[in-house]
Amino acid sequence: MTNLPQVRSYPTNDKLSLGLAEYVLNAQAAAFSRHPKFRIAVSGGSLPSILASPALIDNPSVQWSKWEIFFADERAVPLDHPDSNYGLLKSVLLDKIPQKSSMPKVFPIDELLLDDTQELADAYEQTLIQSFAAKDSVKLPIFDLILLGCGPDGHTCSLFPGHELLREDIAWVAPIEDSPKPPPRRITLTLPVVTHAVRVVFVAAGAGKKEILKTIFEKPEEGLPCSLVNMEAGDKVVWFTDDAAIQGVTGVRKGSL
Ligand SMILES: O=C(O)[C@H](O)[C@@H](O)[C@H](O)[C@H](O)COP(=O)(O)O
C-alpha cells in the first residue's frame, strides 16, 4: 500500500531536527510553485524547539518574509503567559531569526477574547478565512504544511481521544474547555482542517512515545486522534521520530532519510 503515512526515524534529536529542516525547505519550495506564500500551522509541546534548529533558522534558503505562521492549537492564556504556544514559538524560533531577515507574518489568538473560548475560536477562524478564503469561498483552508506533536494518550493539536470534538465537521477552529492536558481552556484546528493540508508532519521523539506509537500504528481501529489523521491524510503524512520512539513498532512505512 502506498497511501500509508511515512516514518522517518533518526538516531539522535539533532539528526531529526536536520531532517525536519530539510523537509520544511522542500515543503516551502513546493508551496512557492503553487503560490507566493508558505502557510503553515504549528503546535506547542516539544515541536517548536525541535523545529527551531540552526539548520532552519540560519538557512539562507528560508524565505521568512513569505511565511504565514498559524497555530494548530493554542491555550486560552495571554501571549506572554508561560503556557502560550505563541510565546513558546516566539522565544525558541521567532526571536532567533537573524535580524537581517524580514520576519514571517505570525497569527496569534486575540488576547481580548480570552474569557470566551467560543469567541476566541470564532475570531481565529475569521483570521483563517481572511487568509485562505478572502477571494473565493472555500470549504476548508489548505495549509501548505501542518506541524503536529503527539501526546502520550495519542492526542494531537487539542483533539483528545474519545472527545466529541473529533466529530466536528463544520467549524475550522473549535473551542475546548475540558482539555485533559492542562491548561483546560484552548482552541484547536479541527480534524478536517488538519487532514486537508497539503502535508502533515508529526514529530515524536523519545522512548516515552514508543507505547503510544505502537497503538497509533498497530491498532488504528482504536481511533486515537493521531491514527485518525494517519487514516484520513494517508501518504500526505510524514512522521519524524527518533529510533527510541519507533523501535519495534510494526505497520509503519519507513521513508528514506
Ligand atoms: O499545545 C499543546 O498542548 C500541543 O499542541 C499538543 O498537541 C502537543 O503537541 C502534544 O501534547 C505533544 O506534546 P510533546 O511534544 O511535548 O509531547
TrEMBL record:
InterPro entries: 6-phosphogluconolactonase_DevB, 6PGL, Glc/Gal-6P_isomerase, NagB/RpiA_transferase-like. It catalyses: 6-phospho-D-glucono-1,5-lactone + H2O = 6-phospho-D-gluconate + H(+). GO terms for molecular function: 6-phosphogluconolactonase activity. Keywords: Hydrolase. Pathway: Carbohydrate degradation; pentose phosphate pathway; D-ribulose 5-phosphate from D-glucose 6-phosphate (oxidative stage): step 2/3. GO terms for biological process: carbohydrate metabolic process; pentose-phosphate shunt. It holds the Pfam family Glucosamine_iso. Its EC number is 3.1.1.31. The keyword Hydrolase applies. It comes from the Eukaryota. Residues 12-239 form the Glucosamine/galactosamine-6-phosphate isomerase domain. Hydrolysis of 6-phosphogluconolactone to 6-phosphogluconate. Belongs to the glucosamine/galactosamine-6-phosphate isomerase family. 6-phosphogluconolactonase subfamily. PANTHER family: 6-PHOSPHOGLUCONOLACTONASE. This is 6-phosphogluconolactonase.
